Amino acid sequence: MRNPRIRASFIAKICLASLLGLAVLCSLGCSSSEPTLATAKPGDVITYGQYFVDTDDELDDLEWIVLANEDNRLFLLTKDIVLYAPYAYADDYTEYTDPEEPWKSSQIREVLNGNLFYGTAFTEEEQAAIETLSDDAGEYKVFLPGQSEVLEYLSEDQYGATYTPYAESLRSISYEGEDGEIWKAFEDRIGQAWVLRETLEERPTSVMLISESGTPISGLNDDDGNHLLSFPIQGHYGIRPVIIVDVP
C-alpha cells in the first residue's frame, strides 16, 4: 500500500513546479502587452484611430510613436509616412518672410484637419480627446512636426520612416502627369523623406525634409556639391502627422 504522505508530498511538488513555470512564463510574456494611453511612455509605439494603411478601401490601426507624456497629455507622431500631399497650394507664390507663416495657410493643414485625415482616422470619442490648438489663422488639431520638436523628442533611430503602401500609392499617382518622369527622378533622390512644419528661415518659400537616414535636407546638390534645387512649398511630400491626446 502506498504511503499517503509520500503521495501528498509528490503532488505538492508538482503544483509548486507548475506555479514556478507560470511565473517564468508571465515574466517573459505577460509584461510584453502593448502600452495603452494610460501606460504609454516616451518611445513606446501605440495605436490610436484607424486609417488607410495597405489599401484605400480598408481602415487599419494607426500606429504612433509617443514623443512625450507630460501632465496627462501624450504628444504623438505617426510611426510611418501615412500621406503624400502638397504642402501648399500650387498657385501660392506669396513671398513669406516668417518660416512659421506658410503652415498657417497651407493646403496640408486643411488636409490634415479635414475629412481626408482627421474625419476619417478618428471616432467622435477619439476626436474629443485630441487637444485643440490655435494660432492667428484659427484652430486646428492635427499638425506637422517642427524641427525643434524632432530634435528634442525623437531618437536617431526614429528619424527614418517608410511610406505605408497607401501613401506610396498616392506618391505613384504624381508620376503620371506631364512632368512625371522628372518628378520620379527627384523622388528617387530624396527617398523615404517627410516634411517639417516650418519652412527655411533663409528661404521661407522652401521646406525642410527629414531623409530616411534621419538627415535634415533643404535641397539637392549635384555630384560636385553644387546646389541644384530647393524643395518648394508647392511640392508634394511625405507626411507624418502629430496630435496631442488628453489621457483620461
Structure description:
This protein is α+β, with helices and mostly antiparallel strands and 248 residues long. It folds into 2 domains: 1-33; 45-246, no CATH class. It contains 9 helices and 13 strands. It has helices at residues 4-29, 101-104, 107-113, 118-121, 124-129, 147-153, 156-159, 165-173, 180-190, and strands at residues 45-52, 59-70, 73-78, 83-86, 133-135, 138-140, 194-199, 207-210, 216-217, 219-221, 227-230, 236-239, 242-246. The strands form 5 sheets. Strands 1-2-3-13 form a 4-stranded antiparallel beta sheet, with no helix packed on it. The longest helix has 26 residues, at 4-29. It is globular and about 50 Å long. The N and C termini lie far apart (64 Å). The relative contact order is 0.17.
What count of structural domains? 2
How many strands in all? 13
For the biggest β-sheet, the strand order reads: 1-2-3-13
The oligomeric status of these chains comes to single chain
Query: What is the H-and-E element order?
Result: HEEEEHHHHEEHHHHEEEEEEE
How far apart, in Å, are the first and last alpha carbons? 64 Å
| Strand residues, percent | 25-35%
Helix content range: 25-40%
- Main beta sheet strand tally, sense and closure: 4 strands, antiparallel
Q: What count of helical segments does DSSP give?
A: 9
Ranges where pLDDT stays below 50 over 5 or more residues in a row are 4-31
Mean pLDDT: 82
Overall geometric form:
globular
Specify the structural class. alpha+beta
Rounded to the nearest angstrom, the radius of gyration is 24 Å
